[in-house]
Amino acid sequence: MAQFTLYNKHSTPPNSDSTRVDCEHVPLCSINDVQLRFLVPDDLTEVRQLCQEWFPIDYPLSWYEDITSSTRFFALAAVYNLAIIGLIVAEMKPYRNVNKEVIANMGDSDELYTRLSGFPMQDKGILPDSMGRSADVGYILSLGVHRSHRRNGIGSLLLDALMNHLTTAERHSVKAIFLHTLTTNQPAIFFYEKRRFTLHSFMPYYYNIRGKGKDGFTYVNYINGGHPPWTLLDHIKHYASKVRHTSSLCAWVAGRVQQVVRWFYHKLLTRFNFIE
């Protein structure tokens, strides 16, 4: 795997002949001539224009201001020839905060931003209650690639960067990464399923696009030992496995006892014969 460099927009890009400053290397899939860097406030206009082209949702200006300036977000750009051609925005939150900021309507920009900061009720069951008390989750708010650069691995490059970021020892508390997508967005669904995201829930009328309600899906990828809540079937399988293990253990113990008894009996007979 090649080494890709995360660099600051105001520093020299990695391919320049000039001296580079303070760069952090992250192992990613190799794509020539593409660099990764975090968003900065100067990107606001460019990012806003790209998102308006890529996505049917009209994000409010405050959202662009936050993702280009706040360290609360993991906002990473794929850059080619000094232009942004791909983007991923994610946020890490304690799982116990899921569903605390849900609203019923997405009619205006302020409500949309509130919705982006929370999660729908269907997302409550992503983790078991016992794990969720101390776990964090990563929420992908946005992932897009410029139309002329799609199917070149750039989406995977950005997603890999996020996965690498969340699977370090320092972020072991993050047990799941999840996202929402339109049920009609087949390319996105295929992409995420290929990357081991699994369907978690169906959300009727989750999106409000041009005044019309659109259905959505929640997709989840479990990391750092995270797993979904157990179903009744999972509990049955678990206890059946314990019974099998216990039976095997009992059989092993019984076998060892038989061996000891036989050994003791053999020694006893040998000693008896010797005395005779």
TrEMBL record:
One MF annotation (Gene Ontology) recorded for this entry: protein N-terminal-methionine acetyltransferase activity
Keyword field: Acyltransferase, Chromatin regulator, Chromosome partition, Membrane, Transferase, Transmembrane, Transmembrane helix
TM region(s), chain numbering: 73-90
InterPro entries per UniProt: Acyl_CoA_acyltransferase (IPR016181), GNAT_dom (IPR000182), NAA60-like (IPR045141)
Primary enzyme class: transferase
SUPFAM superfamilies tied to this protein: Acyl-CoA N-acyltransferases (Nat)
One Gene Ontology biological process: chromosome segregation
Protein name according to UniProt: N-alpha-acetyltransferase 60
Organism: Drosophila rhopaloa (Fruit fly)
Biological classification of the source: Eukaryota, Metazoa, Ecdysozoa, Arthropoda, Hexapoda
Originating gene: LOC108043234
